[in-house]
Amino acid sequence: MKEGGRKQGSASPCAACKLLRRRCAADCVFAPYFPADEPHKFANVHKVFGASNVNKMLQGIGRLSLIRRYNTSNDLYELPEHQRGDAVSSMVYEANARVRDPVYGCVGAISSLQQQIDALQIQLAVAQAEAVHLRVRQTQTASCSYWTQPHSPTNSASPSSKPIFDIDMGLDHTSYADSMWS
């Protein structure tokens, strides 16, 4: 069982202390977020942000002195403890993205996903337009066949005759699925 990034009963240092080659104290700031069995997490975060900056963020040190002059409350500057795990997860994600793409980082991944969304929206619009076109064509075909059939005045008044707009609007997806996606 793990507790705070360390195995119980063991003096195994956390991943941060291992990488920094220092003794891992019982109250180590990094231990809850960088367990010993996940050294790659801290390695990338350290490479991108630096251990000192991560330490400051987790401890709430390094507050902006300009804002501090106008506000004496410490709540504004410290990261609440219940949000630190999320902050570390964000830093790990950004650090991993920066290692993969040093120029754009996670913005490159977001941009790529946005381009995929745009392309899929265009494909969806084309498919919807093609479906409407097929419905119109089906309506026109049914309408033309109605007017080309001989009708007598007695047949059109009978209750068994078909109304003009009684068209089955169900589409047979198998007949045009290939044309939409190829």
UniProtKB/TrEMBL annotation:
Belongs to the LOB domain-containing protein family. The keyword Transferase does not apply. Residues 110-137 form a coiled coil. It comes from the Eukaryota. Residues 12-131 form the LOB domain. Keywords: Coiled coil. This is LOB domain-containing protein 4-like isoform X1.
